[in-house]
Amino acid sequence: MSTFDALLGRIAGRSILVVGDLMLDHFVYGRVTRISPEAPVPVVQFDREEYRLGGAANVASNIVALGGRVQAVGVTGADSEAARLLSELQALGVDTTGIVSDSSRCTTRKLRVVTTRNQQVARIDYERDAEIDGAIEDAVVASVVEHARTADAVLVSDYLKGVISRSVARACVKEAERRGIPVLVDPKVPHIDYYKGATVITPNHHEAESITNLRIRTADEARTAAARVRSRARCQSVLITRGEHGTWLLAADGETDLPA
Known about the structure:
Blueprint: H1 3-11, E1 15-20, E2 22-35, E3 42-55, H2 56-65, E4 69-76, H3 80-91, E5 95-101, E6 109-115, E7 120-126, H4 134-148, E8 153-157, H5 166-179, E9 183-186, E10 200-201, H6 205-212, H7 219-233, E11 237-241, E12 247-251, E13 254-258
Parallel strand pairs: 1-4, 1-8, 2-6, 4-5, 8-9, 9-10, 10-11
Antiparallel strand pairs: 2-3, 6-7, 11-12, 12-13
Helix pairs in contact: 4-5, 6-7
């Protein structure tokens, strides 16, 4: 059995608490046959539309597909997009009782206008990316505390859309430590100092370069960068994803260059 197969086997049946920025990806498809006489832009004749789970919601969906059980914690607006997102998560069997509704925000939605030839014409982002605070932040922290009690791992999915505040990140790490379970972080560079004490953080090589001010083109450069990321983030392990070059894992008990 490969290492990858072994990891997949460990997910099946486990309860994963996913904390992060829940999104909807909205695709509008149509045909382009002319340019508008009002401005030099294509006129898209509507054909169909579809919605997909995005951000932390997509992470939750992927875990379910791998056989895991998911409890989701995040924030939505009090709008029709929130109803759609919750309905789609619930249809997958995701526990959505930890998701907090905030009437002052809209549910994050990425609207993409795409031609039938799969060419993207435009993208419109519906979002409010200010960090949560006050009663909403308190409610999210309380949800983390409650749902971590029955989780086998905590996964922080940070897209810089406001849910992962310093207090929320701290609660994730603290509750994971209390239960003796791992906390994994898909990070964003501006929040690197939020993740102190995490078990693993998983920057891609561009994020690792930004965190360390190092260029990463070789395995040796990945090794150096991983050590600096771990020192900066004060976490236990670092997994740098390098696209077609595989990944570099700096763990507490050693380091490994994993091919793509």
